[in-house]
Amino acid sequence: MRPAPTRPGPTTRPGATTRPGATTRPGATTRPGATTRPGATRRVPTALAAVLLTLAAALLGTPTAAQAGTAQVTATATATAPLTLEATFPTPGNGWAKVERYLDTTPGFGAEQFPSDGRGDQDGARRTYFGTTRPSSARFLLYSGAGWDTGSQATPVLLVHGANDNADRAWANPGESGTCGAASCPSTGLAQYLAGNGRRVFAIGFAHKHGDNLLQAQAVGDAVALIRARLGVPQVDVVAWSKGEVAARAYVSSVKPSWGRAYAGDVRRLITLGGPHGGLDYVYAHGWDFDLVTWPACGGTANAPSPHLYMTCYGTYTAQPCLGVLPSGGHDCYPGQRQLLARWDGTYGVDTTAQDWWTTYYGGQGVYTSGQGIQAAIDAGSLIAPLRQAGIPASVRTYLLAGGSADIPGVLNEGRGPSDGLVFTASALDTTGIATVGGTRLLTGLNHLELAWAPDAASQVNAWLG
């Protein structure tokens, strides 16, 4: 999951640190004793972090001329039922050997909602691969790395990206969008590193950047089945980063829709990078900053969810239901973020310097905002408790890698407790419900984004793959 970019020129919230021109909603109240930071200037946080938020909201642009010119669509062919191969792109760039688009025809899949202003649309080369900016979640991309058919290692590897991201930036070109968690971004990533060590590497690309993890778990199962059939192997290793951990864990734990495929015993090892095993509450603990970069009436454009239903911007009290973590008015554009939620206020407290901090976290009408609070969102469909209860089978040896550097450039990093900037270290290393823990490691010098490409992380992943 990548963080949302900061707003150019941070806004000073006069007195109550409000948006310039904002007015107090009539009758609004705050928690007795709540304080604001007079004249404070804050760096606006990253996304979703909420798992993480998180979530990078920088559009990656359109495909390069080379990408557009070399991507050739082949005739539709039928793959292992219920999958249909719709298109193949044989020269995609970024070190990939090919990219394929598949359709899962199982009844139950559908089109998820996208923000109407386009902030969540597919971008860059992904527009070409999906054939549309807003694909149905019944579709997914399967990337094949260089040497996918010649690598010397017996068990192939599937890479699963996080929120507001894609397989190109996450695994093959961390510098594609200029946002990689470091001042200098590499042009190659974990995909090339593993391929260089004889791994047969694949990656999945999801249709929705903050999509339902239960639907994405089905896509993970589909991708594993395709790789097994293609290579004639019994099992696949899965490396999942950030929000992708929840989808991968849901698959191996058979946490699924009633119509979904159950775990088929086909994952040998599961390696998670900054995965929110214990959940996260970033968007609620730092909600005011999220609003400033997401709320359209305040000038926000980031592709990240808001903990509020209403907010005062430039003197006008407005609603933006599609941007809420909770469904509202028939809108639900960020279901995957709701599924990552867990409360950490009992462990690390809440950011009491944020405007309307009490009502943001616990629900109610604040001075400038109104929302239902984190518990209502958890009750509406968090997957953290169900996943921990279902457990990961003992046959799936699981490894957990965490970062310990809360220094993602340009964002308000999670500082209430030890974290990688977005996910608490304690959450990323939480082994509750994992029957066979193959290993855990904390890389104190890496932040959430660096976990997916930094040499120390890549070396550890390769070692755990065995």
Task: Draw up the topology in text.
Blueprint: H1 14-17, H2 65-70, E1 77-78, E2 83-89, E3 96-104, H3 125-130, E4 139-145, E5 157-160, H4 167-172, H5 190-196, E6 201-206, H6 213-231, E7 236-241, H7 243-252, E8 267-273, H8 282-285, H9 287-294, E9 310-313, E10 316-319, H10 335-338, H11 345-348, H12 357-362, E11 364-365, E12 369-371, H13 374-379, H14 384-390, E13 397-403, H15 425-428, E14 437-443, H16 455-465
Helix pairs in contact: 6-7
Q: How do the helices and strands follow one another from N- to C-terminus?
A: HHEEEHEEHHEHEHEHHEEHHHEEHHEHEH
Q: Report the span from N to C terminus.
A: 26 Å
Class from secondary-structure proportions: alpha/beta
Q: Radius of gyration from the CA trace? A: 21 Å
Figure out the total of helices. Answer: 16
Proportion of strand residues: 15-25%
Strand order of the largest sheet: 1-2-3-4-6-5-7-8-13-14
Query: Segments where pLDDT lies below 50 for 5+ residues?
Result: 4-79
The total strand number stands at 14
The main β sheet shows up as: 10 strands, mixed
What is the molecular shape?
globular
Overall mean pLDDT stands at 86
Helical coverage, percent range: 10-25%
In short:
The protein has 466 residues and is of the alpha/beta class. 24% of the residues lie in helices and 16% in strands. The chain is built from 16 helices and 14 strands.
Give an overview of the whole structure.
The chain is of the alpha/beta class and 466 residues long. The chain is built from 16 helices and 14 strands. The strands form 2 sheets. It has a 10-stranded mixed beta sheet, sandwiched between helices. The radius of gyration is 21 Å and the shape is globular.
